[in-house]
């Protein structure tokens, strides 16, 4: 959740230690997982709330930035987990599974509702394409009060969620529930309506258009007879027909060409339809495959075979029916534009693989060029940046909604400020204990017949246990409860009244407050209605009186932020010191300190600049 | 000296992230927002009651939702601790309670503004009563040579404190004033024959009048207990622990002063000490000697810790209460378990409230005087023990032999002395619930090492304070294996 600060319209220009700088006030410096999420979901917050068993609030936090939690909870590529600091200790927190847990919980707690106080706006916005990007933009704009209509060319919403991802990874009822939850906000959905010229919608009274038709055209192999033979099909077509029930069984040997998620999905679906042998043919090695590692591993487990460094060069056929694939071996050469090493055919290495079916999964491209539209048409989703993940599509939707809102409301678009420097929480000094990552129950391979979902959700106990592995990186525990209800975020403005000292914690400014050894006050000034106001602000932190500390260690036991450590003082005496960058000023250590050595620092010098 | 401004008022501590259920700004309620409810200790709760508040409520986040994880849990513990103490104090425990706040609405937080604690301030000593006649310093430096605090190297010196005063600078660092642990070891080597500890005590009284507020150990709970007992008109229930088989009386010639033992047991039971067992054993021993002691349900703290903090006003209230109670019970002789209480009665009370007219003695002195024969405990044959001279009992009251006589009177027990014993004994580090820091810990470790070096299996004490502080030092110092036992428990066969 972005913090709503009661900032004067002209903004706050802060002068910190004499250096004048535009400073965006943010509630917290971000934790690595949140930085890693393209959609900016406040991961640490909901993980923390799950750990505390506050599932309702966790769900609210997820929905702030992700309208499709159940979908992401199943198929997200979870870049957040790659950023997780647990990687340096054991394994990342199972964030995707936790999101899924909270989304499943949402199914029982009812759909999201539009807050009653949402101001209604007259402007109508059209969204073309009911994929994840379109759904996100619609959800965001509806929450801002706009009237939104989604146009979808197919007979059902979801886009690639429905046509690309197999039900055993993403059950169809989950897609339906989540889309319905978005539509319930009061969004109109028009199906079976293909929009090729989004500019036309502007003439029909829409104030802006978000154009996200996706990539619907499969890329061809470019081999002779590709379009004429029986037994060769592109993955998009194959999956759609399989999901619709048009193809119920597949016999013989199946070759899938490609290395992306579609290739893996096609192979796994083919296996489920009864194919005797399914082999993925890829021209690079496993390391270069764009598909998610865990999906590759599942496919392998299900018996899918792989032929790496193999490139198809011709189709073998008899009586207009495909019988095999002529291939050539490759080796890896210099990196190409994508940064991956280019496969180079080895001369004279041609060979033939027998096949009854070939499924091509080489990726998709837009069905039409997406450029040359009027100003008020915004392009998003795969159409804007090429095929990407669900979470990237959601991020693209957020960005589109922000731009459309800026255009229509005249609200100044907040320039993304440079992020507050994240405080270093080096694992080397963490007292973190190695805790094994929770595993959800997975359907055994021998039971995987139909399209039944493979992965079970966490139980509430499992979820809470897994969430409590979170190291809470960043300067606060980001429970975000303060964002919901703490008026202290307005304290900067209360500084106007500097006749009395004010003690505060300003989230996100922590880095400014401390030298290595001492907390210090910072001078804060900003202009308000032409008058410069401000004062000295000092953080509320605990500090140790070395003369009184007997290093008994009780404080270390209660500090939830690992902000205390025992060090050698003069004459080799051991004392406990406060790490001011971690201390959050809760004062629990003060309560348990038997000697009174720990005190909350509350001394504030009065402002000297009036 | 009831504080009328607080009479009938209630105090609410509230975590600034929740609101107070059903609160509409009632009158005679003081609301104090805190950034986490876990920062409210039992000391602060009792201090509020001592200041005349009629009740204290802690409003915190519901269980399991504390942002700082343990805040609510700590608040529950502190409330429970305060309630246990209130039970003995005779107050209804419900006066102190924890309630869950409403997390969806926060109260408007007042600016958190609190007085700055005085840690290193200076103050001037008025010349009257503190002239050179009180400080006869020959500048020999022997005090600094033996002082266990100076020895730890934290920069304290008894001589410097006296010299600052004598040289007419008239300003004294409170840091130094509170760093003295009052063991009076320096006075045994001082050629002037003055008690340095008593001088410090008097200077602290002046500092106290000047508003100096040192950091108190254990959140000030011991001093708060003293003040509540000084001011409250509520009848205590401090004998709730008393077992029926023990014979005690309401009136009579001989009284047993149990002191703060019930309260200390609540506060320090987690260290493994069993002070109420010591008190029970003492009564049983007296019963065996044919004495049915008077135990007063409403006896109050002797005032030792308030006196050594400098709060003479409340100490005087305590002295008067105790003397009135003892006299009206017809008591002429008082037996003490705690040398600090004995010292306060014998030395301080006459200065505060005039001659007591009471015969005052430590239980060891009483048992020796009445020819006590320790029962023969078969299990305690051939044991080697060593003895810790309490500062107040030994150096300050000159009682060295009675406890030793009792120990050696037990069949099969052999007494060995530590490197420093009798007048040169090292303090247990008890201080007066002030300044319990690294210096104290070091001297405790040194003392335990000395005890260990004697080869004894038990360290016998004659003071509950020594019991508590050595137990604490031992708990945090796993290298020391020697067990501590109170003399009374050893005599009763519980050693």
UniProtKB/TrEMBL annotation, chain B:
<dbReference type="Pfam" id="PF13183">
    <property type="entry name" value="Fer4_8"/>
</dbReference>
<protein>
    <submittedName>
        <fullName>Hydrogenase iron-sulfur subunit</fullName>
    </submittedName>
</protein>
<dbReference type="InterPro" id="IPR004017">
    <property type="entry name" value="Cys_rich_dom"/>
</dbReference>
<dbReference type="Pfam" id="PF02662">
    <property type="entry name" value="FlpD"/>
</dbReference>
<dbReference type="GO" id="GO:0051539">
    <property type="term" value="F:4 iron, 4 sulfur cluster binding"/>
</dbReference>
<keyword id="KW-0408">Iron</keyword>
<keyword id="KW-0560">Oxidoreductase</keyword>
<dbReference type="GO" id="GO:0016491">
    <property type="term" value="F:oxidoreductase activity"/>
</dbReference>
<dbReference type="InterPro" id="IPR051460">
    <property type="entry name" value="HdrC_iron-sulfur_subunit"/>
</dbReference>
<dbReference type="Pfam" id="PF02754">
    <property type="entry name" value="CCG"/>
</dbReference>
<keyword id="KW-0004">4Fe-4S</keyword>
<dbReference type="InterPro" id="IPR017896">
    <property type="entry name" value="4Fe4S_Fe-S-bd"/>
</dbReference>
<dbReference type="InterPro" id="IPR003813">
    <property type="entry name" value="MvhD/FlpD"/>
</dbReference>
<feature type="domain" description="4Fe-4S ferredoxin-type">
    <location>
        <begin position="170"/>
        <end position="201"/>
    </location>
</feature>
<keyword id="KW-0479">Metal-binding</keyword>
<keyword id="KW-0411">Iron-sulfur</keyword>
<dbReference type="InterPro" id="IPR009051">
    <property type="entry name" value="Helical_ferredxn"/>
</dbReference>
<feature type="domain" description="4Fe-4S ferredoxin-type">
    <location>
        <begin position="126"/>
        <end position="159"/>
    </location>
</feature>
<dbReference type="InterPro" id="IPR017900">
    <property type="entry name" value="4Fe4S_Fe_S_CS"/>
</dbReference>
<dbReference type="GO" id="GO:0046872">
    <property type="term" value="F:metal ion binding"/>
</dbReference>
<dbReference type="GO" id="GO:0005886">
    <property type="term" value="C:plasma membrane"/>
</dbReference>
